Amino acid sequence: MDRIRRSDIPEFYCPIDVAINKHTELAEKHTLQWVKKFGLIPKGGKEYQGLRSVKAAWYVGYTNPDASADDLYLMSDWTMWVFTYDDVCDSSDLGNNPNELSAMNNQLMDVLNGAEVTQQDNNFVQALQDIRQRLIQKTSKEWVERFVHDVDQQLQGYIWEATNRLENITPDLSTYVKLRPYPLVIYPCLDLTWISKDIPTNAKFLRHIYVQNMAVMASNYVGWTNDILGVNRELDEGNPHNIVLVLQQEYNLSFQDAVQQAVQMCNAEMKAFLNLESHLPSFGEAEDASLKDYINGLRSWMGGHFVWYSQTRSYNV
What we know:
This protein has about 325 residues and is mainly alpha-helical. Helices cover about 70% and strands about 0% of the residues. It has 14 helices and no strands. The longest helix has 27 residues, at about 285-310. It starts with about 25 loop residues before the first helix and ends in a 6-residue tail after the last helix.
């Protein structure tokens, strides 16, 4: 079986300074209590210890270094919800059964759209309702609607992956590049970042082609570094959703050559991102301040995710 060591991976280009949020340790304690409260995973078991080692709070702490404590708690809880739901899907028949997964996802979307939740609903439904209620208290209706929309697309991405696993399909490169960000949950996470930074949903710069494509480039960089550093895990699980494995199939490459090409793609996205950043136009004094926060948010995601993933024992190569 193909395997790779960290020392075999070419150097990533990431000239971004990374900081850690000062509330990160508090967020970790909060989120572990939140997981316990909603019974998402048994305390003390192997799965619980595995989630602790993932360090969800550090994930959001590195990618949101300036967020308030309350915002970081929400981000950390959401991230832990995603990790636990993803693990349940991967370790059960759900992850290979698009029909059952679709039925479960419909329940989750009903909750995000305001359906009543009872004690008979499963733990993931109840925990997601808590996320929704806190979002409603924190931000505008427009941002809540955008978050719900992006979670809907995230869950659609899970169906795409489940269908591929069921039918033993390794996606072609074009499809993979376009669809991979959705099950990686990048866009809902970015929504929480913009909410914490008070980015207006109607800001003019959000409609500019440079800014929109910089968000895509940042998402690609996050997703592909995630894939490269986690390729051994995907190989162990027989999971075809990895840029290295997609490139290997697409161009009939050796495993090492596919890793090298994937790193080159990551580095090209970073360089293109920085080039567009240097050519951003002005949108007026008020909007430029928000634009700076927005771009810094994307930079923090690119650099912070890379540092987090490199340091997380459970996932790295």
